Amino acid sequence: METYADWLRARGDDELRALLSARPELLAPVPADLTALAARAATPAAVSRALDRLDRFTLAVLEALLVLPAADGPGPVADAISATPDRVGGALDTLRRYGLAWGNGTLNTAPGVRHGLPHPAGLGPPARDAFAGYPPERLIDLITDLEGTAPRGFADSARLLGRLTELLADPGPLIDDAGPEARAALDALAWGPPVGRVADARRPVRTATAGSPVERLLARGLLAAEDDRTVTLPREVALHLRGGRLFRDVPAEPPPLTPAGAPRGEEVVVRAAAGEAAATVRLIEELLERWGLDPPPVLRSGGLAVRDLRAAATLLDVPEWHAALLVEVAYAAGLLTRSGDLDGEWLPTPAYDLWLMRDTAGRWTELAHGWLKSDRAAGLAGERDDRDRLINALSESMVRGSAPATRRAVLEILADAAPGGAVAEPAVRARLAWLRPRRGGPLRDRVLGWTLREAAALGFTGFGELAPFARDLLAGDDPEPRLEKHLPAPVDEIVIQADLTAIAPGPLVTDLARELALAADVESTGGATVYRFTPESIRRALDAGRTAADVTDLLARHSATPLPQPLTYLIDDVARRHGHLRVGALASYVRTDSSSTLDEILADRRSDALRLHRLAPTVLASGLQRADLLDGLRAMGLAPVAEAPGGGVIVTRPDAQRAKPPPTAEIVRIRPAERTDAAMLTAAVRALRAGDEASALGAEQARLRADAPAGEPPRSPAMATIDRLRAAVERGGRVWIGYLDQQGQASSRIVEPVRVEGGFLTGYDATRAAVHRFALHRITGVSELDDDPAP
Question: C-alpha distances in angstroms, 516 versus 503, 511, 758?
C-alpha cells in the first residue's frame, strides 16, 4: 500500500518546491531525505501551522475529508458541503500543495491532520469510537434498553459496538422519547463543539430510572461518557439533528471589502503616506539623537519607564501610543538597545550611525521591515497584564507571537482592495476571519485595530488605503524608487531672518540638522521647521566646543540670504563673554584675567550663596562643586566655562553614546520566514532527492557526491571571496571553495551558492549531497568552475 512518504517521493520537483514554499518551516533545517520530510510534515506543530494558513472554505473541505468515509474526487465533498465541484477541486489542489491531502485515487488526509482537527466540522466521534471505552456489561444494558430484549450470542465488545451503531443510525425516535428538555441539550451540542461537562458522567443509568434530561440521554446512548466529567455527542446523532448537513454555511468566496468614505486618487494617497513616512524617519532620528546624549535608564524589570515614555511623547509632540510605536520600531530595526543586563540605559546602536548615512527612503525601508517582522505589539504599552502588572514599552511583556502574522495578513487584505478607497475596519475583520478562521479571538481583533492605526502613522497607508510603495514592500520588491519620488529632498539651505529665527523649508541634511539643533531651539514644526537663536542656544554650541567663527561660518554657508546683523551681534556678544570666567575644582574656583570682574562678583549679593573667597587678585575659591558653581554664576548673568586642571576648556556637552547589544539580548525577534526564495527551494529539493537516492543505494552513497578538484584548497582575499560568491549566486553556477572545520582542518567543497548574508554562505554542497551553511570567515578562498550545475 502506498504511504504518505511514497506519495511525496512520486511528486515532481515543481510540486515539492510548491510544498516547501507553502510550508517554509519544513526547511529548518533541510531534512535528510523525503522520508524525513514526510515525518516532519506530520508533526503536530507543523500540521498546526499549515492548518492556520487555510481559509474557511479550504478548511471546511479538509474537515469534510475527515468525516466522509472515502472520497475519490471533488464530487462527494461538494455534495456534503453544498458547493460546486470546481470550487471544491480548487480547494483540494490547495490541500495537496500543502501536503495535507494526498492520494492518486481515493483522497486521504495527511498523517497528523486528524489529531490537529479532533472535532472536524464540529462533530464528535462515530458511535463505535464514542462507546469504545464502555465495558461489555454497560453496552449490554444500553442495547437491552434500546431493543427491549438482551442481545443474544457471544457478547464481545466488537459485536456489541456494531449493534449499538446500527441502533443509533436513526436516532429520531430515541430523541423524541427523551423529551423536549433533553432535545434542547442536544441542540446546544449539535453544531459543535460536541462535548459538554456534567458531574459523574459515568454513573450507570437505565431508561427506567433516568430522571434528569442528561440521564435520559445517557441511558439511550444519545450521549457518551468520555470520562467522569465529560460527555460527547456521537456523530450519527449530530448529523441527524443537522439534517444531514456538515456545515450551516460555508461561503466559498471571501466577504467583500466594503469601502469606507469617498474614493481618493492615487496621487493623494501616496503623498499622504509619503509624508507620514518622512515624519516617522524624522521623529525616530530626533528621539535617538536625544537619547544618545541623555539616555533613559532600563527598568529593573526591563523596559522603559512611563515617565520616560511621556517625556519622549512631549519631545516629539505625539500621543503616548505613537511614541511607544516609534520606540518599538527603532528597537525592532536594530537602532536601539539596552547598554547592559543590569543598570543599563536605552541607547542607539552603531547601526544607527549607518542608518543615518542612507537617504530617507532607505531609512524608512529599514524601519518598515523591522515593524513587519517584530513580534512585539506596541499597542500594549501602558496596559495591564493578567496579573495586573503594568506593561512597559520595550519590555518582554510586549511580545505576542501572533502579531507579525496578523500584521502582514491585515496589510495583504488592504492590498487586495480595489484602488480608490479605504476599507472599513469591520470589513477587514470579516475578511481576516474568513482567511484565518483558526486564530481568532479578542487579541487578534485588537492587533488588527493597532495594525491599521500604526500603518497610518508609519506611512504604509494614506487615508486608509495602502500606498503603492507599501505594496512593493509586501510583495518583496524594493519600495525605495516609488517612495523616493514623493519624498521632499533633504535641503542644505535655510532662511535666516532678522528676528533671530531660521526657517528650514524641508528636511535638513543630517550634518546641518545636528549643528542647527545645537545652536538654535526648535520653535515650531510642520511643513517647515522654525528655529530660534537665543543667548542660551548660542552658548550651548560654544559649550560643545564650537567657536564663534565656527557658528558664523556654518550659518553663512547654509543661509539663503546674508546673515542678519542682529544674529552676528548675538553670536559675537555671547562669544565675547563666553569663557571669560574659568571654573575649576578645589572643591571649585573661579579664575579670570580681570580682577575688577571678581570685585563685581563679590559685591553682588547673589554671590553670597556661592561661598566665595579670594585666593589671589584673579582667583576666587568656593566650597561648591564645579557644576553647582557654574549654574550659580550663569544665574547671575555671567558666561563661565569649565576648566580642566591643565587650564584647558572642558566641553560640558557630552558626546553621543552608543551601545552594542549584549550577547544574550536580541535586537528583534524574527518569526520563521513566510517566504523562501526560489534558489533555496531548488537547492533543498536537490538535497532531498540526493538523500533519497543515498538511502536507497546504501554503500553506493559516495557515487552521488561530486569529487573536488585535486590539489590544495583555493585561497583568495576576503573581499574577493565575498564578491565571487555573490557573483556565483547571481549567475547560478558552481564554485570550488576551501573550508576550515572547527579543528582548523582545510577541506575542499563544490558548492552551488544560494544566498550570502549575515556572515554565512547558504548553498547546495555537492561534495556532501546536502544543503549547508558555511561561515564566511572560515572560507579560505573561492575558485570558479566551468561546469554547470547538475539538473
Answer: 11, 9, 37
Can you say how many angstroms the Cα of residue 454 is from the centroid of all Cα atoms in its chain?
A: 13
Q: What grid cell was written down for 113?
A: 491532520
Q: How confident is the model at residue 663 (pLDDT cuts 50, 70, 90)?
A: very low
Q: For 509-545, how does the pLDDT look when each residue is reduced to its tens digit (9 = 90+)?
A: 878 887 888 888 888 776 678 899 999 999 888 888 8
Instruction: Tell which phi-psi region holds residue 440, choosing left (phi > 0), alpha (psi between -120 and 50) or beta.
Output: beta
Query: Which stretches does DSSP call E strand in 69-197?
Result: 101-102, 108-109, 195-197
Q: Which of 745, 747, 749 minimizes the C-alpha distance to 764?
A: 749
What is the mean predicted confidence (pLDDT) over 436-442? 88
Pairing of strands 582-584, 641-643: parallel
Distances (CA, A) of 366 to 244, 675, 721, 725, 760: 54, 18, 27, 25, 21
Contact of 138 with 132, CB cutoff 8 Å: no
Q: Would you say the pTM of this structure is higher than 0.70?
A: yes
Interior/surface letters 753-788, b for 16+ CB within 10 angstroms, e for the rest:
bbbbeeeebbbbbbbbbbbbebeeeebbbbbebeee
- Record the cell numbers describing residue 261, joined without a space: 468614505
Written as one letter, the residue type at 332 is A
The Cα 221–Cα 227 span in angstroms is: 15
Judged by DSSP in three states, 523 sits in strand
**128 CB-near residues (< 8 Å, 6+ apart):** 161, 162, 164, 165
Distance of alpha carbon 683 from alpha carbon 754, whole angstroms: 8
95/152 Cα distance (integer angstroms): 47
